[in-house]
Design goal:
single chain, 309 residues, mainly alpha, 3-stranded mixed sheet, two-stranded parallel sheet, 5 strands
Length: 309
């Protein structure tokens, strides 16, 4: 990201929500609470899945990876956002901006791939129950998790590399963190060619996974309708329904932010949309997966009982 008008060493000024100063104190309070809940909820899932043998299953193995992703993703943006909202510092160095872009893209892309893996896990559990333990072997689960992380990192390296090659005019970034659509708004030259390349990578990391997930759930729906036991049907719907809700929250916001042309991208709307997928969704994920989950509730009671003893 070369700058024509200012030195790269000057970094960027993050405008954040300074256009709405009356909102900054309220946002600071709510985001602080949401961030605390995100840390507590996702850390609890990781700890419980490690401590309780009942949660040593592929589903909770992948869920612990999702929780770790959410912890890292929010931590890569929220602390700086809170400093920005307090008015203490609204700047970020060039190196910090590149690092934040690389990390946030890697984590977001990894989550997109991981949600496909989790959909496949639910497909195997519902549609191939007799072969489930054979299909979702621990070694295979580890390979899928590693593939998710590698795929996310590769996508991030490609898009960050394309972004860094573009000259930028000015250093005032109308966002609260270094995000691709906002950075493209600073481009000094026509971004059509670069955007076309980025669009291809985004289709691979967003559209194709979303299509695979929808295909998995189409098969799951057919299998659920054939289940004669009401209890079994209810359990399958509850587990898969929670995952599908997470998918809708994640991909809905990702499609809005990353699959529209730069010319039609609204920086103001983009900031509020980014609040949703950087703060709200990671906070809701533990609640969505565990609110009606007897296994997690039982594991929590078991761990609390052990701590009292």
């Amino acid at each position: 990201m070369r700058s024509k008008n200012t030195s790269i060493d000057d970094g960027f000024i993050l405008v954040g929500f300074s256009d709405w100063p009356q909102l900054e104190l309220t946002l600071f309070a709510f985001i602080s609470i949401f961030y605390s809940l995100t840390l507590f909820g996702n850390t609890s899932i990781i700890v419980l899945s490690r401590l309780d043998p009942r949660l040593n299953t592929p589903m909770y193995f992948f869920l612990s990876h999702l929780s770790f992703l959410d912890l890292c993703y929010t931590t890569s943006t929220v602390p700086q956002l809170l400093i920005n909202l307090s008015g203490l510092n609204r700047t970020i160095s060039y190196g910090g901006c590149v690092a934040q872009l690389l990390i946030s893209l890697a984590l977001g892309s990894t989550e997109g791939v991981l949600l496909v893996v989790m959909a496949f896990d639910r497909y195997a559990a519902v549609c191939r129950p007799l072969h489930y333990t054979t299909i979702m072997h621990p070694h295979f689960c580890q390979a899928l998790a590693i593939a998710s992380w590698v795929g996310g990192l590769m996508n991030s390296l490609i898009q960050t590399g394309l972004m860094m090659a573009m000259p930028l005019c000015g250093n005032q970034l109308n966002h609260f963190f270094c995000e691709m659509p906002a950075l493209l708004k600073l481009a000094c030259e026509d971004t059509g060619g670069t955007e076309a390349k980025m669009f291809v990578t985004r289709v691979i990391i967003i559209v194709i996974p979303a299509a695979l997930i929808l295909g998995s759930y189409a098969n799951i729906s057919q299998a659920v309708l054939r289940i004669k036991s009401m209890a079994g049907c209810g359990k399958a719907l509850g587990t898969c329904g929670s995952h599908l809700l997470v998918v809708c929250l994640f991909y809905g916001s990702a499609i809005y932010a990353y699959l529209q042309p730069t010319s039609s991208y609204s920086e103001s709307e983009g900031k509020f949309a980014a609040l949703f997928y950087t703060i709200i969704t990671p906070m809701l994920n533990p609640l969505i997966y565990t609110l009606r989950n007897k296994d997690v509730k039982g594991a929590l009671l078991n761990v609390l009982g052990r701590s009292r003893d």
